[in-house]
Amino acid sequence: MAISITGSSGFVGQNLIPYLENEGYTINSISREVLSTFDSKVFKNTEVIIHLAGKAHDLKGTSNADEYYQVNFELTKRLYDAFLKSDAKKFIFISSVKAAADVVGGVLTEGINPDPQTHYGKSKLMAEQYIQNQALPEGKYCYILRPCMIHGPGNKGNLNLLYKFVQKGVPYPLAAFENKRSFLSVENFCFVVAKIIEKDILSGVYQLADDESLSTNEVVCVLAASLNKEPRLWKVPSNLIKGLAILGDFFKLPLNTGRLRKLTENYTVSNEKIKSALGIDFPLTTKEGLKQTADSFFKI
Fold first, then answer.
1. Do the beta carbons of residue 141 and residue 90 sit within 8 Å?
2. How far apart are CA 161 and CA 271, in angstroms?
3. What CATH class does 2-155+182-211 carry?
4. Confidence band, pLDDT 50/70/90 cuts, at residue 299
């Protein structure tokens, strides 16, 4: 089976492509140059289209707002229109839980009324809504996947920053913040995508997250254990930390309000809908996935 993938050079793509090739699929990576001029002929002999390409959330706040809508909405719109005209059977759009909500009070489910507050989330939601408003021809399937924070080999986000803190023996200063949040191992992500390719489940929106949610303090403990170190957790007063993060916004420091929110927010995501639809259990637990990611950092 031939699969076309956009965004193949990104972190997720670099993990997904070898995973699917190992499953016996033929991969056609669609380059940025092709994306700028493509039409439905690009998908000739393609059975599945996986749309990974997108403008990621910029925690530094330096991106032009229009970039999000051009990449996350307009590009997705053009790709989906080409899919509808092509002979491809399945379209898998990688959206984000941030298309649903930036703040989660309890457990996020697919039944929430979406209310994103950032240009990133709004642009992803616009793409989702465009897809959902188009008539889907008989015999075609479309899946909008909303993953939470994906981590794994090659990841360069906040987990890498935390790992460096632990590796250097620097105390984690945000231990005063109590939180619970969901994570998604890239291996579990790849596993789900492979199962969606294999099985014809109902088209729709599906959230992706590992089974267990963890506090950031627990994550620090997992990272420390991977290095055979004792975790060093400092409970610096939260108000002081918030003040330093505000200064970080002005002086472009590693700790800013966006990164602080990412590290300390409560954001628990349900994965029950996708697990029930596919009839699966994930191959990795949350802690096993985090350990794999930590081990990959050690090899760098």
1. yes
2. 27
3. alpha beta
4. confident
In sequence order, what are the residues at sequence separation of 6 or more whose Cβ sits closer than 8 angstroms to the Cβ of residue 116?
98, 99, 100, 101, 102, 122, 124, 125
Bridge partner residues of 146 (DSSP)? 207
pTM: 0.92
Rounded Cα distance, 118 and 59, in Å: 11
Query: Model confidence over 65-105: pLDDT tens digits?
Result: 899 999 999 999 999 999 999 999 999 999 999 999 999 98
Q: What is the Cβ-side half-sphere exposure of residue 70, based on CA atoms within 13 angstroms?
A: 7
pLDDT at 59 over 70: no
Give the integer Cα–Cα distance in Å for 157 and 227.
19
Q: Largest alpha-carbon pair distance within the chain?
A: 59
* CA gap 93, 292 in Å, rounded: 26
* 137 DSSP 8-state letter: P
* Ranges of each domain in the chain: 2-155+182-211
Rounded (10°) angle between helices 257-264 and 158-167? 80
Structure tokens at 159: 């987990």
